Amino acid sequence: MGEHMKRVGIMPHVYKENALKTAREVGDWLQGKGKEVRLLMEDAEAAGCPHLGVPKEAFLQRLDLVISLGGDGAMLRAAALAYEADAPVVGVNLGGKGFLTAMERERMYPGLEEVLAGRSLLQERMMLECLLGDGDGAERHYALNEVAVGKRELQRMVRLEVDINARYFHFYSGDGVIFSTPTGSTAYSLSAGGPIVDPDLDCIILTPICSHSLMDRSVIISPKSVVRVEVQREKVMPSLSFDGREELALPHGGSITIRRAERRLKIIKMKDYSFYNLLRDKFDFPSGG
Fold first, then answer.
1. Catalytic: which of 72, 175, 216, 243?
2. Long-range contact list for 237-240, CB < 8 A, 24+ apart?
3. Contact of 223 with 204, CB cutoff 8 Å
4. Positive/negative CA dihedral, 198, 282, 260, 120
5. Neighbour-count burial of 106, counting CB atoms closer than 10 A to its CB (0-12 exposed, 13-18 middle, 19+ buried)
6. Would you say residue 1 has pLDDT above 70?
7. Once rounded to an integer, what is the mean pLDDT over residues 184-190?
8. Which architecture, in CATH terms, is 128-260?
9. CATH code matching the domain that covers 2-126+264-282, chosen among 2.60.40.10, 2.40.10.240, 3.40.50.10330, 3.40.50.300
10. 72 belongs to the catalytic site
C-alpha cells in the first residue's frame, strides 16, 4: 500500500491555527519525500500555502491518501472526500477526544512514516447512504457516523414514521431519530443513550432523541435492511444532517431512505490499534481492581 502513495491530500481544521501551521509543516515534509501534495483551495489559502491549493475536482483525482489534521470533526470532513475519491484517510489528533484519528501530534512524523511505508493497519468501515426523495432524481448523501432526522424548533416535537423493509415499524414523537453506524456508535448516538458497537460489525443503530415515550429504546437493525422515514405534516420544521457537517430542511410529508452504502470507507490505524483499549483511554474507564 505505502509505495503507491504518491498523491497526498492534506485537510486541516481551518479554524485552528495549530492545524494550519501543522498543514504547512506536513506539506513541506511530504514534498521533501517526493510526494505530490494537495489542499483544497480554501484550506490552502487559510494555511498560507496557496500554491498547493486546487479545486475539489482536482483534489479528488487519482488521490492516494488523505491526511486529516484536527479532531474528530476534521476527520469526518476529510473522510467524506476520501470516500468520494475511494482513497484511505488517516487522522492526526490536534483536538480533544480524537476517537477517529490514528495518532497524536507528538507521534505524527513516525506515524506517517509507518503509513507511507505500508506498515499500518487498513480498515474498511461501513457507511450509510441516505436518499432524499424517490426515483432517479433522489438526492444521495453519505455518512460515516450517523444520519440524524430532527427539527429546528426547540419547543415542538417532530413526528416520524419509521418503516423497515417496506413494513411499518414504529411512530416516534420527540426531538428526532439517529441512524448510526458502528463507527458512529460512540458519537451522537451514545449521547442519546445508544449502545457502543464494535466497528468491525455491520448494523444500523436506530436511537430516538428525547422520545416522548417510556418504551422507546435503541434498536439494532440488520445491515441488509432498508429503512424509510416519513415526516409527518406538522408545524415544526424538520431537518436532516449527516455527520453533523450539513443540515438540510425536509419538506413536510417528505421521506428519506437509509441503508448500508455499497462501498466502505478505507481508514488507517496504527498496527497496535485496539478498539477496546481506545474505549478505555478516551472515555476514562476506571482501572481494574
1. 72
2. 237/151, 237/152, 237/153, 238/149, 238/150, 238/151, 238/152, 238/158, 238/160, 239/149, 239/150, 239/151, 239/152, 240/130, 240/132, 240/147, 240/148, 240/149, 240/150
3. yes
4. negative
5. exposed
6. no
7. 97
8. Sandwich (2.60)
9. 3.40.50.10330
10. yes
The pairing of beta strand 139-143 with beta strand 7-12: unpaired
Enter the C-alpha cell of residue 155.
419547543
Q: Pick from 219, 121, 226: which is nearest to 170 by CA?
A: 219
Look up residue 200 and give its three cell numbers.
468491525
- In the chain, the percentage of residues whose pLDDT exceeds 70 is 97
Q: Which three cell numbers stand for residue 225?
A: 435492511
Residue with the three cell numbers 476506571:
286
pLDDT band at 284, cuts 50/70/90? confident
pTM over cut 0.85: yes
